[in-house]
Amino acid sequence: MATAIIEHKATSGKVIIMETATGYIRTMIGLERKDTLSPFQPTTDFCTPYPTEQRQVATLLAALETGKISLSDTVDVGKGIYISGGDTIKDHNWHRGGYGKITVEWAIAANSRIGEVLIRERAFGDKKSEYEAAIEQIGYGKPDSVEGLECIPSTNMATSKISPIQLIAFYNAIANHGRMVQPQLYKDSVAITSPQIASKSNIDSIRQALEGTVTEGLGKRANTDKTKVAGKGGTIQIGNFNDSTYIIDFCGYFPTGNPRYTILVILEKQGLPASGHIHAAGLFRKIVEQLIQNK
């Protein structure tokens, strides 16, 4: 972990490795430092919500459940700048003219923020409460507590914040073909918190989109010739323009057919370059290859 933080000139990093079938957390490690010259200190904060772009996956799954959206549908993200509810949303490539008209599946693979908004608007219109209820229904933002950890419940499912333990639990449910299991620090009996967070066909669609993100989309740095992986990254700038602090992450699982492990990588760093699909995805790939080597 320390090597990865130094390599990417980050100030903190977190990694969670979970057994997909059982929810048992095999590894949960976090390190932080005040700046790139300071010594590392351990951090155990895995339950506080943090800002992330990973809600895009939950938005798509909730939209698929309405029956108003499919992966092959198209959305026009234009030149990469979109106004919604008084907010200006920009895709990462807005300065290069944006993506224009793309499929819903590619909106995920290309990490289009505008694509997420258009998908949400098509499925839920301006009904914010309906959207929030749909997000909660599929288990995004669960669990509220984990034995051995102090967790802060997510109170607003429409925000971009979620705790690391909740995010990996959501991805783990996707890896589990829709079955959500309780994360646990101790090898105990498996606790199923939801037998099926969404229809099997829609879970399959999400799995397809996450696999495509790695093979064809921005997540290619997570790809490895050792096995087939699926996942998605995110990049968010926090603070003001002058305080260019970025939180980057990548969450995914492997192997795609019958997943054994679900992995979350989070890095916080000052300044550019900063990309969840490059830096965090690269560390994700190294962890996957190490797990395969050690099995």
TrEMBL record:
Example of a GO cellular component annotation carried by this entry: plasma membrane
InterPro entries named among the record's database cross-references: Beta-lactam/transpept, Beta-lactam/transpept-like, PCN-bd_Tpept
Keyword Membrane: yes
Record GO terms (molecular function): penicillin binding
Sorted UniProt keywords: Membrane
Cellular compartment(s): Membrane
UniProt main location, coarse: membrane
Residues covered by the Penicillin-binding protein transpeptidase domain: 57-288
Pfam families: Transpeptidase (PF00905)
Keyword Membrane: yes
A Gene Ontology biological process term: cell wall organization
PANTHER family named in the record: PEPTIDOGLYCAN D,D-TRANSPEPTIDASE, PEPTIDOGLYCAN D,D-TRANSPEPTIDASE FTSI
Protein name (record): Penicillin-binding transpeptidase domain-containing protein
Taxonomic lineage: Bacteria, Pseudomonadati, Bacteroidota, Bacteroidia, Bacteroidales
